[in-house]
Structure formats: C-alpha cells, structure tokens
Amino acid sequence: MSEPYLTITPLGGLGEIGMNCQKWQTDQGVVLIDCGLMFPDDALLGVDVVIPRLESVFAEGEKVLGIVLTHGHEDHIGALPWLLLQYKSLRGIRIYGSPFTLALVEHKLGEQNLLDRVELMPMPAHSTVTLGNLTFHFLPVHHSIPQCYALGVETPIGKILHTGDIKLDSAPLDDEACDPLSEFARFAEQGETKGIRLLLADSTNVENPGCSLPERQVRDDLDAIFSEVKGRIIIALFSSHIRRIRTVLELAKKYRRSVLVSGRSLSTNIDKAVELGLLERPENVYTEAAGFPELDPGQTVVLATGTQGEALSALARIARGEHRQLSLHEGDTVIMSSRVIPGNARAVSKVLNQIYRLGAEVYHNPGRTVHATGHACRSELKEIIETVRPDYFIPVHGEYRHLALHARLAEECGVRRDHIRIIEDGQPVTFTSDAIRTEEPVFVESVMVDGKGVGDVGRMVLKERRILGGEGLVAVVLVVAAETGEVLHGPEMISRGFVFEQQYSHLLEDAKCLVLDQLESTNPNDISRLSDKIRSSLRRFFRDVLGRDPIVVPIVSQV
C-alpha cells in the first residue's frame, strides 16, 4: 500500500493580492480550495480580469472531488464562471460553501447560464463534508462578508487549519458573535488525532501592528456623523459588506432618512441577504432601477458602489455629474467606507478630487472610523499562531513581503524555522505522515481575460499595447501590379497616435520615398520580404529623425 500523502499546490494568491486558489491532491483525487480572480493593475492594458491557470487540475483528467469555498468575495469565487466556460466537459461538479457564498455563486453562474453544470452544496457553520479522504469542517470566523469560514481539515497526514480571510473582532456586533480562537482550539483537540500539523494563515495585514478595529467602532462613528449632518449622505461601500449595509439601514431608520440604493450589485446582494435572513426587509428603500422619488436631500442617504473609483460605478457617475437621478451639491457628505485596493489609488483620487470640486464634505481619512479592515493585523496573527501551535506553517494570501514577514512572525511564536515554508504560485509542497518535501514547480502563469477572449492576451500582446500607448502606429498601404511591379496605389501613410499628420507631412513624404526605395530593391512578388524591409527601414528612419519607435504595419497587396 502506498504511503498517505497530501500535495498542496497554490494556483493563485501567494505572491499577489487576489486570485486565491489552491489545489489539494491525495491518492483519492483533487479538491480545489477557492477559485478567485484578480483585478488588473495599470500594466495590464485593456485586460478585464486575471484568473488562475487551471490546466493542472482539469486538463490532465484529474478526479475532481469538489470545490470548497471559504467565502464569497470576488478574489475567492470570481473565476468560477471562466472555469466552467473553459472546461465545457465539466458536469455535475459540486461546490461547497456557506449559504450566502453560494447565493452569490448562484447569481454569478446564472448570468452565464452555467447553473446546470454544477451542484451547489450549502454548508452551515460547524457542518462537515468528506471528499475522498479529506474531511472539511466549516468554522465561522470574522471578516467583511457574512458567513465566512476557516477550514479545519482532517487529512491522511494530520489536521490542517486554513484560516481563509480572517480577523479577530474584539467587539463584534451581536449578530456576528463568534470566537475563532475557541473554534480552532476545539478542532485541534477533537477526534483521535490531536494538534494541528499545518497552519495556512492569511498574511494580508501582517505589516500593520496591533489589532484591527472592531466593526462596532465603525457603527458608533457612523452614528456620530449621521447625528451631525444636515444634508444628503452618500456612503460608498463594498456591495458584499452586508453588516455595514445593515448598520446604514439601521441608522437611516433611527434618523428618519430614506435610503436610495445606486448600483446593481448592491441591490442584488441586499435582496439575497433578505432571502437568507441576514437582513430584515428594509422600509423606505428605493432602487435606481425602480426610480428614486423626489425627496428632501436632508432626508436621504445614498448607498452607492464605487469604492475603487470604477469609471462606471454609481459614485463616479455622481461625481462627474453623469448620474441620471442623483447629483452632488455643496452641503452633501460623502463617506468612503472601504479601503483602497492596491493599484486603484489613482482612480479613487480622481473621484475624490471631483467630489471636493463640487463642495461636498468627504470622510475617508483616519479622523473618523468609517471603515475597519476584514483582515487580522500583526498582534491578531500572533495570537492565532500561539493558539494553534502548528507543527508546520505556510503563510498565504499576500505579496512576497507579506509572506516573508508572516514567516518570521511564526518563527518568533515558536514554529521551527525548518518547518516554515514560503511558497509562491506553482510551487507544490507534499506532506507525508512524517516528512515534507518541495516538488518541482508547475506552470501556473495567470490567464488574462479580455472581453470574450480567455488566455489570448499574453506578454507579446501587452508589449504591443504598451508600444501603441507610448509610441503610436504607422500603417503603410501599398498596392502593386503582380506582373510588372508597378505601383497602383500609394504608398499611403496613416498615423495613429504617432504624429499629427498635417504638422509632419514633410516627414511622412520622406517616409514614402523610403518605401519606394525598398520596392525598387526587392522582388515585388515576395510580399513577406518586402513588408519586412519596409518595416525595418521606417522604424530606423523614425528613430533617427524623431527618437520614436512606433509600431509599423505594412499592408502590401498585389492585383
């Protein structure tokens, strides 16, 4: 009989923020832990989202036992539609998660008509499911979305604890009360096997000292703002932060304000939260789709999408004066109840500048606690490690510096240095009953999604887009006679993003002469060679004369 083993391969989320996805493999099959996306930074020109590369799971015909989700944020569930679109043979795959997480998944897959391809398996808190020889315990933890779980997993090589995204809320609101540390300690001691073999822990906020702020403090500070403000209040927040939405609805009722909801995702998530009993059906709430009534601004509060400065979001449209039903005026108050995701600072700054121009008051600085992170800070992470006392430790969810700092913290907390592994995407680690080994890396370079294209945009396309953005394009149109090589049309020079044609007409005329020179020295029937010589001569000419290197596209045809 072969020795029991578990191989964990991170496919995303280790070495970057977002795109969280792990492949867990035993001799009985594969389980996917989360399947998230990452939003592109400025370097990924035109790309819509980035998703994990999953060929190692599905293209090789692995026996997939199921997909287990820790919670419903996009960086943990967002790649699921593309997974099913890429691998059309996948049928009946089971997805496990909390009821709210699966409600979000159901909506996401329903928009793509993919629900018939999966089986959604809602897992209440403290429930368990066995997939092959892996038994998953769904342990409730605090985060910034309802029904978020850590995973306690009984495996052939011992117990593993995966914290998922987590914070230790020192003063949780009554409806969210849970004690993650007690949950972890209980899991470690229950059953025949005692202790935690491996801890995989959220590293996002390891750079931040102390503890995260409690959600109760956010509610108290928002209450103070509501009591002071006389004009309209506009609150931008994440549409999945149902606890924060509930706070706003409670304060609106307390201060007799009607609530205007602007943003489709907000409306959808509020409806789903009501269906699941996470929110009471609110009164005096109006949606953008149904139309807003004429109300005194001082009697309204607006819930809006747009915390990251998205161009088409409700807040951005309001700030630009392009919202059909809402406008911003002096005396209004805007509350940015969120953190800025890395890479979005410029877009958020642009929206804030527009809001300030219109004379509105803005709360987004530390003066008032209008947002509390959903991730544990350094002291909380230390408390988790000291409570769990794992034999092995792997930091997850973060850029490399986060992983490195979290590894050092684990060593300070008593984990042996040789039992700590800093791994990145594509680096498998195999555990046996008495050892650990690092396997050969696998190819997991992320997949870029651009429109309906999945994976067709790569480094070369991005390089060309950067050149187009920085240098522009020159197209050369030339038609020659097939028999004589006589020029029938052109050469015509078309500049796009390179030079202003009227101002540099003399330069383009000189370029035409270079094209004709190449035609004279090259067999006109060898279209490929002629195109290459035109391209290289024009690039050299433009570099020498203007110090620019545009993309040159020769369009040569014969008739």
Question: Which characteristics define this entry?
Answer:
8-stranded mixed sheet; 559 residues; globular
Written account of the structure:
- The chain is α/β, with parallel strands linked by helices and 559 residues long.
- It has 15 helices and 26 strands.
- The strands form 5 sheets. Strands 7-6-5-3-2-1-20-21 form an 8-stranded mixed β-sheet.
- A hairpin with a 2-residue loop joins β10 (148-155) and β11.
- The chain is globular and about 90 Å long.
- It starts with a strand and ends with a strand.
- The relative contact order is 0.12.
Secondary-structure map:
Blueprint: E1 5-12, E2 21-26, E3 29-33, E4 49-51, H1 55-58, E5 64-68, H2 74-77, H3 80-86, E6 93-97, H4 99-111, E7 118-122, E8 128-131, E9 134-141, E10 148-155, E11 158-162, H5 180-189, E12 198-202, H6 215-228, E13 233-236, H7 242-254, E14 258-262, H8 264-275, E15 285-287, E16 300-304, H9 314-320, E17 333-336, H10 345-357, E18 361-363, H11 378-388, E19 392-396, H12 400-412, E20 429-432, E21 436-438, E22 447-450, E23 453-454, H13 459-470, E24 473-480, E25 487-496, H14 505-520, H15 527-546, E26 551-558
Parallel strand pairs: 3-5, 5-6, 6-7, 11-12, 12-19, 13-16, 13-17, 14-15, 14-16, 17-18, 24-26
Antiparallel strand pairs: 1-2, 1-20, 2-3, 4-22, 8-9, 9-10, 10-11, 20-21, 22-23, 24-25
Helix pairs in contact: 5-11, 6-7, 9-10, 14-15
